[in-house]
Amino acid sequence: MWPGILDDDNAADRHLGLQAGLAWGRVADASVVYEDLGISPGMAQGIARAVCEGREIEYRTMPHWQKKAPAEAEASCGEAVVKTSPGGR
Description:
Layout: H1 11-25, E1 30-34, H2 41-52, E2 56-60, H3 70-84
Parallel strand pairs: 1-2
Helix pairs in contact: 1-2
């Protein structure tokens, strides 16, 4: 729902996130699943809940999306910082 707010590696945070998503699903018109990186166990739980609650499930991909390697992501961030830093650094 809001990536980066909760820590997926923290069991309590992960549980809160899953419960929040399931609660939101109860009032949603449909569940949309982005499957570019596969279906995680939490996503599978949400899909199963949607099926049980009779909610439409729409599977999507992001055709132009490419996952960057960590080094590429850091380089991109570094370039952005250099271009926007005061004093031209």
